[in-house]
Amino acid sequence: MWRVPGQLFVHVARKRFLSGPWDRPAAFMSTLLINQPQYAWLKELGLREENEGVYNGSWGGRGEVITTYCPANNEPIARVRQASVTDYEETVKKAREAWRIWADIPAPKRGEIVRQIGDALREKIQVLGSLVSLEMGKILVEGVGEVQEYVDICDYAVGLSRMIGGPILPSERPGHALIEQWNPVGLVGIITAFNFPVAVYGWNNAIAMICGNACLWKGAPTTSLISVAVTKIIAKVLEDNKLPGAICSLTCGGADIGTAMARDERVNLLSFTGSTKVGKQVALMVQERFGRSLLELGGNNAIIAFEDADLSLVVPSALFAAVGTAGQRCTTARRLFLHESIHDEVVNRLTKAYAQIRVGNPWDSNVLYGPLHTKQAVSMFLGAVEEAKKEGGMVVYGGKVMDRPGNYVEPTIVTGLDHSASIVHTETFAPILYVFKFKNEDEVFAWNNEVKQGLSSSIFTKDLGRIFRWLGPKGSDCGIVNVNIPTSGAEIGGAFGGEKHTGGGRESGSDAWKQYMRRSTCTINYSKDLPLAQGIKFQ
Fold first, then answer.
1. Is residue 329 part of a domain?
2. What InterPro entries does the entry give (predicted)?
3. Is 296 in the active site?
4. Do both 405 and 380 map to the same domain?
5. Is 369 a domain residue?
């Protein structure tokens, strides 16, 4: 999720658009991966050397031209022309016009359109998953799984389209009905991050659509090709059904577009996924106009293993949670608390497991660990390792940049730090796991909760009483509270989100649909009398 502030995305090469098609020499064209035979599959997604990054029923864009790169080798893939502020203004107007048509369509019929979007994504799941792997850098199985998550939320939303609504409540007044009416908010702005460039948009888009909203998407600049490819798939479904394409609009861009969305009163809800630092700025801009925001921000997540834990579950869980997506998930485990009686054994097993991780090109089906997304992420990884050493930490595995092309770093285990060390309380979006000893339940529950974020957490134990204390009011203060499973790998059926500096927003399943709607309490008098509530007489 957009963990690197916009000003740090210098990995994206920019050029001001002047006139005509991109004025590039043929030699530059030939260096793009999209022109190489082994990447010809990119054209199955409608991608070209130069791609328009604005969609509002038609494709265009008058902003800067950016080149996106493959993190596995830092070679250029293709280019995208981003949105100008003028493009943004035009797109918002068209999206709001499209909303007036979309809102009149019954919810189950809207669900049918979302079903078709899910089917269209399913048809392209392998090629789109490969693009996620190529442009974001996550391993292929995770890239395909991310598209599957969008498909799953579409299936979920189809059923939800026949169930959303409020209750009919008993009225204290005779001849009166009390109804809770839910209506779409209107236009939902969706700002997503580089690390889940498909799934997070899917969570928001599918649910927002069946609720009757139009959507305006701004993805991360470094994954602009993914944003374009996904929008092309959705646009075809809308156009085939003779619906305005602007129902699902796209404005690729940087901080200027994100700021415009945050300040725009025409954006009725802004869903933002990214860093706590940028999320705070977004929240303040939205609140300044009394708007609504849905924030999914940082996570400094912990796994706790007690003395009775099943170590055959603890070790693979910690491994997956710490190094999956090269440590770039918002739910990545960054802290591992081990009871003092099992600490040394778990660290020994975990170190051996780290040594067996298969590293390589993320689109190789045998690989489990790929690169970091940008060169800047590599620099931040190295800075965090050095800071951990300064604060008394000992690197027992990893800690270095790998000697190979691309943005590869060694998955890293650090022991010996105090739980209160400043680096431990700093979310570093990299595969660094800090390991600690603890003595008892009270202290480790407190350590879990002492960081500013509150996204995901997990304990490993067989003690039933401890499990329910963990789930209770004095246990974990996170939005995701697990038992005997990793911190990562949430299912779409539950609400996803966290507390404190994680932002408090909820997406995906359960009653998260309510975030995308406004509620009205309606009283209907079908009698010939006019009784007042609370028995008040006004005569």
1. yes
2. Ald_DH/histidinol_DH (IPR016161), Ald_DH_C (IPR016163), Ald_DH_CS_GLU (IPR029510), Ald_DH_N (IPR016162), Aldehyde_DH_dom (IPR015590), ALDH7A1-like (IPR044638)
3. yes
4. yes
5. yes
